[in-house]
Amino acid sequence: MDVSEDEDPVDPTSQSLSSTDTPSPPNVSGPVPKKRKQSRSNWRRANKRREKVAKVGHDAPEWVVREHVQLSEPLQLPIDHTKLDVSASGYVGVRSRESKHALRKSHSLDELLAIGFEVVKWDGREARPILDSKGRVCGVLAGRPRGSRFQASLDRTYEFLQEESAAERFRPAESRHRRGPFEAVAFGMSFGGGQSTAKRLAPGSHAQLVERFMANDDIACLANFADSAFRTWSPRLYQYYRTTLHKAAAHNKQRLNFPGSCFAAMSVNMGGRVCCFKHRDCVNLAFGWCAITSLGNFGPEKGGHFVLWDLKLAIEFPPGATLLIPSAVFSHSNTSIGDHEERFSVTQYTAGALFRWVENGFKTDEELRVKDPEHYTHMQAMKASRFEKGVEMYCTLDELSMDAADEQMGGDDVDTVGTSQTEEIELSPVNDTQDLYCDFMDGDILPVHSKESWDIMGINPESLLETPQSPVYKDSDAVQATALAPNEPAPPLCQDPKTTNLDAGAIPEPEAAEADRQVVLGCHDLSRVPRSLWPLHLTPKKRSPNLLKRKSSRERVEDGASMVSTSMVGGISGSANLNSNKLSVACNTDDLLPAPSHASVSTGTAHFESRRGMGAAGTVLADSESPSRMTRIVAHRRALDLSLEILDREIGLVHDRRDNVLGKKGMRQRLHRQNQKAKKFDLYGHLPSLSAIQNHIGSANPVLVEANLPSLPFARCGFQAVNEPVDQKDICTLEMLTNDGYQVIEYKQGTSQPIVDSTTGKVFGVVVGALEDPTYHQSAEKAFEFLDEISKDVQFDAKETKHRRGDFAAVTYGVSYGQGSQEPHWLRCPHDELMQKVFSNEHIKRLATFASYTFAMWAPNVYDYYRRQIKLLHVKMPQLKWMFYNTVWLCATINFGPHVCCLPHRDLLNLPFGWCSIIALGDFDYKKGGHLVLHDLRMVIEFPPGCVILIPSALLNHANTPLQPGERRMSFTQFCAGGIFRFIENGFRTEKQLKKDDKKTYEEMMKAKEGRKDMGIGMWSTLDELLAPRSK
To answer: Mind listing the pLDDT tens digit for each residue in 616-646?
Structure first.
């Protein structure tokens, strides 16, 4: 890989040579475009921006973090950055111990592939962070800005370097150095090699060339982008660089290369044939980053790769792209390019000795020892931990997102909007842990919903008014909300922070109904809420705030358009107004609930609007403990969710009609949004919303059992279960089980039933309440019909129809590990074409996704463990990428049946503390047959078609009850083999290989076996932990 370094410590006048890798290709098919002349107003604005950057440096707006950080696809490295080799001082790296003969060689891509290197595909445009094993961002493939202006700068820079390479004269010695056979010009501030003070590198005979470099606006543009990327991906390290550079420059009154760059020095690698040898820029700051920009005209798929030798990776580095890496600790080089291709590179860096000189009080070590022994002793004591503390400046992706959110929270004010028709009440500051659009339902308010949503739930809204009124409590668990008189202006909201409960709101009881009154169900002022926390359907286009005025015709249709919901019928009409900052849903009601008056709600983000002139109401305080109130809240919360879903469907129809008008452009934009969502899932996995957690977990009906979790049959290794004999080996009918004292768990539509250990409170399984969405049940029915149809003509062999789980056809497909295999692999399947069709079906995908989502909701710690480990596996073995990009399980079994009734069994090879998902499909009476039987818990669970149940199938003996004559039943299960996780934690080796290669790690893994069972059980959560706020 190409990376820039600082000057060699031997000769203070020598020029630092640095290498870089490739960005995206410049446009060389035609003449290079000339710079467009700026208007005076544009010039003034640009000049103000330059002055701001020179004064305070670049910043990372929240929209940049959301688009480039949160939606990026990280490159995971199997290393802990703190374990890398550095010098004793912690400021610089160490030179390679290989001989010059071994290092000074060029390598082609084919040569690297032959010795086991892997190629990392990169388009040179989208950013890809490089993460170490602890999740720290230790480098970034920064990409390049979009747009023609930056491309024009790249083209002009490429042309400029071609001309200067041809015109400048270099000595033969300047073309032969340890980084490669090419000319390089280094300039900027440095320190080392016997210098007593920091100063600029001597340009020698290239002083005029250096001046032309520093005066070139296009090179300054490249430097500014690298600086901006550095600030975005490592803000703490960036500030350390910037502060040190400006201290050094102010002390010695030295000139900076570029005011918009935090790097002290730059190397321009010229000659047109830049291909670096394997090297480390060891005199750069050990934990610091170096920025490399590649230029030229070459094929990035065939040559010019950035090679990381320590990791055996060859990263495609297209012309125009920029990357930042810690070049002092990673050995890097480039692959050779074609005979008729050209390649240049520009690198920026800062010498590690410069940081030491500044932190020594602008003294050398020797001067510090003589003049300030106390400070010298302190600096010597810091040597052992300096590199580790430097690595602590790196950020995780979550920290980058939260930093942006904090900045957005602190910088935006809320404007209170009022008209003659509607008043909004400004609320208390935003609480990040609150839901953005449903928390206002925690009060006793009865909002108006669409008739369709009430009908779907089977609830008569008038009956909800008959529940007893919540009593009034004068305590800290309630917040008073006072109604306003018809002509009384809304007073400012005053709350005592000591007595304010953000989870409870007091809402006045509704007055008599009034015809054709308008009630705003939810109006959300999101201007003070970080966009990274907005609900997906409220998230506007990702763009810079200063570009909000420049909208396409597609966006003008969406922003500010009033979309009429045709589904809100039966005396109800509704409309939704969308704009970039708020969503309001308005309904006209005749026969539903009366509208409330003004109410202040303690959510910090929701504004509840009501029409002026509705009459005053009394003051009521909420009782957070009232069961009747919770019933009403749950009902209204679900009704609101359904109303929003109906609205989303209508908006989707508008989108479809608009796409028909806009044609291919609209479809491309839709596809781009889908790709961005997929990237977000790849980064974070499933992230259940706060409203979903409250709806499903807060209203759950737990099933308490005495499980004695420590006695569960874990194997000693902790990665599989013990093959204990099962007490019950035959299929039992429901009548037999109930006569034997088994507990029957009745299925409750829409209500989840977690299985909870009564001793520890741990949730170790769940009967998931199906979605209150008719399309979900339709998907379950269509999935069954599809499986039934596609399997009619398939011939299954005897092993597939008679096995230890029962006498029915079953096919397993996916990635597994075990039975003497040396590494995880795709299972051999004689029905590969059949299974490809099955897992490409949209209804099967939906069921699988829903199961994974519920896994993330009910077992977040186990889910994260799956996701982290499997992501490492995909980085190491990308060919094992599972076709369901949005599930965390690596393997699935389709039990085709058509009369699936499992014998009692345990899935011993599954991860014991992991959960497997089981989805029932078919046409049968779930009250009479098809139950899930958990013999260890003496429990029989009703299991209707479309229902999802999650259990640790390796630990619990489970089976089914038989069906009635003529009924049909299939099932769909997802799981992961425990051996895969052992393989990953062994460093992608078998235990035998680990013992042979690394005895110390092998011994540590053997000791870890004793605590793995406790670790796994500790990942299961209690209900209180599940309801607590979660971070990404």
So the answer is: 333 333 333 344 444 555 555 556 666 666 6
DSSP reduced 3-state for 764: strand
- Write the DSSP symbol of residue 472: P
- As a whole number of Å, the end-to-end CA separation of the chain is 32
How crowded is the C-beta side of 559, counted as CA atoms within 13 Å? 15
| 420 vs 611: CA distance, rounded Å | 9
Of 370, 396, 425, which marks where a domain is finished?
A: 370
Work out the mean pLDDT of the chain and round it to a whole number. 75
**What is the full DSSP assignment across 791-802?**
TTT----HHHHS
Question: Domain for residue 382, yes or no?
Answer: no
d(CA 243, CA 849): 48
| Pair type for strands 128-131 and 75-76 | parallel
Phi-psi region of 860 (alpha: psi -120 to 50; beta: other; left: phi over 0): alpha
Neighbours of 169 (CB within 10 A): 9
List Cα–Cα distances, 280 to 82, 548, 590, in angstroms. Answer: 17, 45, 76
Are the CB atoms for 890 and 869 separated by under 8 Å? no
Task: Determine phi and psi for 889, rounding to 5 degrees.
Answer: -85, 145
Could you give the CA distance from residue 61 to residue 284 in angstroms, rounded to a whole number? 29
Q: How far apart are CA 184 and CA 270, in angstroms?
A: 6
| Torsion sign across C-alpha atoms 484, 488, 489, 491 | negative
Tell me the three state secondary structure of residue 887.
coil
Judging by DSSP bridges, how do beta strands 939-941 and 743-745 pair with one another? parallel
**Beta-ladder partners of 584:** 523, 577
Which two three-digit tokens encode residue 658? 């608009």
Q: What is the pLDDT of residue 411?
A: 40
Peptide bond connecting 898 to the previous residue in cis, omega within 30 degrees of 0: yes
Query: Exposed, middle or buried by CB within 10 Å (0-12, 13-18, 19+), for 84?
Result: buried
| Identity of the amino acid at 223 | A
pLDDT for 725: 73
Q: How far apart are the C-alpha atoms of 361 and 354, rounded to whole Å?
A: 11
List the one residue out of 701, 655, 640, 706 whose CA is nearest residue 443: 640
Rg (CA), the chain: 33
Distance CA 349, CA 396 (A): 22
Is residue 684 in some structural domain? no
Provide the strand spans (E) within 942-998. 948-951, 958-960, 968-975
- Label residue 626 left, alpha or beta by phi (over 0 means left) and psi (-120 to 50 means alpha): beta
Whether residue 736 lies inside any domain: the answer is yes
Task: Note whether residue 527 is domain-resident.
Answer: no
Contact 54/261 with Cβ under 8 angstroms?
no
Number of independent structural domains in the chain: 2
Type of residue at 347? T
The tokens describing 477, both together, are 């668990």
SS3 886: coil
pLDDT of 856:
92
Is residue 344 within 8 A of residue 264, CB to CB? The reply is no
- Examine the fold and report which residue of 354, 370, 386 is the final residue of a domain before the chain moves on: 370
User: What tokens appear for 235 in the block?
Assistant: 């803000």
The tokens of 336 are what? 């050779």
pTM above 0.70, yes or no: no
354 exposure class (CB count in 10 Å sphere: 0-12, 13-18, 19+): buried
Domain range for 98 is: 57-370
The CATH number of the domain holding residue 321 is 3.60.130.30
Q: Are the CB atoms for 298 and 324 separated by under 8 Å? A: no
pLDDT at 512: 37
Segment holding 607, helix H or strand E: strand 606-607
CA distance 197 to 203: 17
Residue 585: name the closest of 650, 540, 503, 530 by CA.
Answer: 650
Average pLDDT rounded to a whole number, residues 321-335: 93
Q: Which residues contact 519 (CB under 8 A, 6 or more apart)?
A: 447, 448, 586, 587, 589, 595, 596, 610, 611
Phi and psi torsions of 481, nearest 5° = -130, 125
